[in-house]
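Before relying on records like the one below, remember that each one covers exactly one chain. Contacts with other chains, cofactors or solvent are not represented anywhere in the record.
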Amino acid sequence: MAKHFTKNEHPEDHRQIIGFIQKFKEEENQKIYSHFISKDALEKLMNDDKFGGIRLHYGRNDEGQRRIYIEGATEKGNGLGSFLCDGPICPNDCPNTEAEPEM
């Protein structure tokens, strides 16, 4: 399950996520096949009264792995500072589906 971090409740984790995103933007883009985020995790993000959609950010974690960071956003697209991250990623943790390339 993806982890849910908010700016107010988890300021250090929030800053770290922002750093991961910035680091990724500075490096050469890598191919990412897919990420999985559960319904429960999405519902946590959507529970914010200001929620109007999501913003997707790409970054690298401390191990250098490519990751996606999903941020709740207002209807106008302004970030709410609440993120979902660390769901399974493909390649490496790929379900057997037609959408995924054969490994």
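Residues 97-103 have pLDDT under 50 and may be disordered.
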